[in-house]
Amino acid sequence: MSILQEIHHQARNWGDRTAPKLRNSVAANGLIDTGALQQSIVSRTWADERVQEIRVSFRFLRYGIFAAKGARRGHAGKKGTTWRDASGKLRRTNTASLNKLQNKHDWYNPIVRKEIIQLKEELGQVMIIEAKKIFI
């Protein structure tokens, strides 16, 4: 097994260990969730041997980001957004909701920060971890 394959294996294990912690964090931070957000959290790991790079990502439903930032019905950010609803109709944020974010639920960043430190300790000096794109 090459060193890249070994690190890929360790990164996959790290993602598999971290995803349940993220699921638990959703409930612990008081997010209103039907269970769909928790069930949607999965880790993915892939390696690109050409550039000696391993990536780990966590996928989850879109509203997990909104909850983390404090957005909900009647509470939007500075610019708002546009989207298509289930019937394909273009929708926009109500202008009365702009600049009203509150009650952020940072369920993601603290867990990933803590776990990335643990991964760095496990891997030691074998690998440089670039974490600038890891947080939401």
Describe the protein:
The protein is built from 4 helices and 4 strands, in the order ααββαββα. It is elongated, with a radius of gyration of 18 Å. Strand 1 and strand 2 form a beta hairpin. It has helices at 3-28, 36-40, 63-69, 109-123, and strands at residues 42-48, 53-59, 82-84, 90-92. The relative contact order is 0.17.
Question: Which key phrases capture this entry?
Answer:
136 residues, alpha+beta, two-stranded antiparallel sheet, two-stranded antiparallel ribbon, 4 helices, 4 strands, 39% helix, elongated
Q: Give the H and E element order.
A: HHEEHEEH
Tally of helical segments: 4
How large a portion of the residues is in β-strands, by DSSP E? 5-15%
Report Rg.
18 Å
Principal-axes shape call: elongated
Mean pLDDT: 79
Distance between the termini: 34 Å
Specify the helix fraction band. 25-40%
Query: Structural class, judged by helices and strands?
Result: alpha+beta
Structure summary, number of beta strands: 4
Low-confidence stretches: none
Strand order of the largest sheet: 1-2
